[in-house]
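seq:
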Amino acid sequence: MSDLKRERMILYSTHVLPDAEEASDWVLLLRQGRLLMEGTVTDLLGSKSSIQVRLFNDVVTEDEWRTLPGVSHVSRSGTTWELETQAKDVTERALLELMLERDLRLQSLHVGHPSLESLFLEMNA
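struct:
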């Protein structure tokens, strides 16, 4: 499909959003026949990232996570904190500084980017 799309416009309809994200330049998200949003994959997903942090010594409060630059939302599931950020690099740097200052022991760190599927699910929650 990649070779064809250089020469022509291809209309591709699917419920498999990871395929649409990979193959498409422009996406329309529909729900029950109504347009939810449209645009390039990059524009739709924006610069939003999530950082999942799990510490051995869980002594950081939700309010402290919220004070990190760029953090727009904080949630917790068990011992894992998820930080949503619009400024991943700035948030990562501040997170590392906090860990060093407080002698926090990192168990795991995962940086993720949203997908069309997570965006669609979030819009329909």
